[in-house]
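Narrative of activities, Objective 1.

The group set out to show that a structural description can be obtained from nothing but a protein's sequence at a throughput compatible with the screening campaign. Below is one input-output pair from the validation batch, recorded exactly as produced.
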Amino acid sequence: MRKAALTAALAAALLLPLAARAAERVENDSIFPPWQHGENNDATQRGLSFTVLEVDDLADFHGDVSDPKLVLYVGGNYFFAMAPLVAAFEQQHPEFNGKIYWETLPPGVLEKQIVAGGTVTSGNMTWTAKPDAYLAGLKKVQSLIDRGLLTGPAVSYVTNSLTIMVPSGNPGHVETLSDLARPGLHVVMPNPEFEGIAHQIEASLKKAGGEALAATVYKAKVADGGTVLTQIHHRQTPLFLMQGRAQAGVTWQSEAAFQEQVGNPITHVDIPSAQNTTAIYAGAEVRNAPHPEAAQLWLSFIRSPAALSIFERYGFKPFAGTTSAG
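Output recorded for this entry:
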């Protein structure tokens, strides 16, 4: 009996930590992509459901690629707004129900996919989805028009500004952009190699502390490990914060608003307007788009009152200038 009791006690001692870790994992599953658990999928027939978080999931690819009637390449800055935008568009144009496919990769990565003829590989899967419309920052859109990859004019629709995203409680006691240079404070920052926001952040860092602050955050601290650069997109920023890998990171304020709205342990620190940077979002039809009429319908919709009301939920502001830039 004593041996059986000892065996049971030993088994319990071994299993309790595993059970605790399993419970913790279930609780934390919500922080991993694709975040919205299939809600950002426009497909009406989904067949086998096979998503294993951290192993088999495609957070940036949405919908049915087999026969789409509209393909959108969207810079991932508002991935969280795409599902309601698509739903509102389909309400106005029901012929597109279940027939919209979209990607929310960084603008520079989407540019490479355009050059590759719409073909992309993720893991062991390769597929082709030739784009109809491309949406990103106005400067990026205009540069691709100038290169002949897009057909102008660029259609501008909303603006966004920067914020400092921090974990709830602000454990790093971050109050200003200058705090990001503090030794011992780990920060996560968008990668300048393929994320346009990185250049806008650098501009704000220079406004706050000159070249020295920008160099410290984006060079010296990268070299010593104090700054970790994202590998995919600045959507990794809240993930790194929630995992305890960093105590602060600069993102668009809309992304912090989304994280707060869904209840993740994320908050933000405002950046004064004199140090902030405003981005203008725009889109254009892709040259030789498979569905040019559909592209124009989307570009018209994206600046409509219905679309703008969705953007405003996350703090975007309607673009106040002319509706397009040639």
